[in-house]
Write a structure and sequence with these properties.
Length: about 270
């Protein structure tokens, strides 16, 4: 190799190697500081695209879990209210049974009927005022719970019927009268209403179970997708630390080599002395 001053090839080679080392060192330091293997699209374009897709899946699933939980909350409010209605109807059964017997006087039946009418009024109040998130629960409308994983969508529907003495076929019933015939007729309708409420609670319970099952499945999906995203995005810390040590040494030796190459060029001046 000629020994000249036109180009310092050795210095250029050392500078190029040092630049590459510094770039790798910068990438490694960024991985250690963020904990992520991919910090920009240039680090792993394909990996970043996959990870971003998984991130969207996770976000959609997490919100869908919340949607399902909100649906469960709505149904549980309805079930709690119907539980109270069942207690009221059981009291009505007792009152109607008492009013049905022949040893009760007309005035006593009037008193029992007054209590019974208050029970019906309370059932109407529960049906009118029970709300979840500002919306009436017993509105007979179908509620659709939207679920998504960012790639596909589905819905789970549930319906909580209207609640009143009319829907329970108790409107206009009375325990009053000179005999227990009216009370006995009302008792038969009350017993039917008890069964109606029990059936409604069973339907609500089945819907709650379905939503909870869906929530559990989606939560498992979130765990698996998070693990997959982590495998792509997370930096291998032990490997990065080892790489950092290696690159630090290369950086120091590269600077020394560049200094030596420049010093070698300066030595030509001695030939001119």
């Amino acid at each position: 190799m000629p020994f000249g001053i036109l180009n310092n090839v050795s210095a250029l080679q050392a500078e190029g190697a040092l630049n590459n080392t510094q770039m790798s060192l910068s990438t490694t330091l960024q991985q250690l500081s963020t904990g992520q293997r991919i910090n920009s699209g240039s680090d792993d374009p394909a990996g970043l695209a996959i990870a971003n897709g998984l991130s969207a899946n996770i976000a959609a699933l997490n919100q869908s879990v919340q949607n399902a939980n909100d649906g469960v909350g709505n149904l549980q409010v309805a079930d709690g209210a119907l539980s109270q209605v069942t207690s009221l109807l059981n009291t009505a059964v007792s009152i109607a049974t008492e009013a049905s017997t022949g040893t009760v006087s007309s005035s006593q039946r009037d008193s029992l009927n007054a209590e019974y009418q208050q029970i019906l009024a309370e059932i109407n109040r529960i049906g009118t005022t029970t709300e979840y998130n500002g919306t009436s629960v017993f509105n007979a409308a179908t509620t659709s719970i939207f679920l998504s994983d960012a790639n596909s969508n589905s819905t789970i529907t549930s319906t909580v019927g209207a609640l009143s003495d009319t829907t329970l076929a108790l409107n206009g019933t009375s325990l009053a009268g000179t005999t227990g015939a009216g009370a006995q007729a009302a008792l038969a309708l009350i017993n039917t209403a008890v069964q109606t409420v029990a059936n409604d609670r069973g339907t609500i319970g089945a819907a709650v179970n379905r939503l909870q099952d869906a929530s559990s499945v989606m939560s498992t999906e979130v765990q698996n997708l998070t693990a997959a995203e982590n495998n792509i995005m997370a930096a291998d810390i032990p490997s990065a630390i080892s790489q950092l040590s290696n690159l630090s040494v290369l950086s120091q030796t590269g600077m020394a080599a560049l200094a030596q190459a420049n010093a070698q060029q300066q030595s030509i001046l001695k030939l001119l002395g």
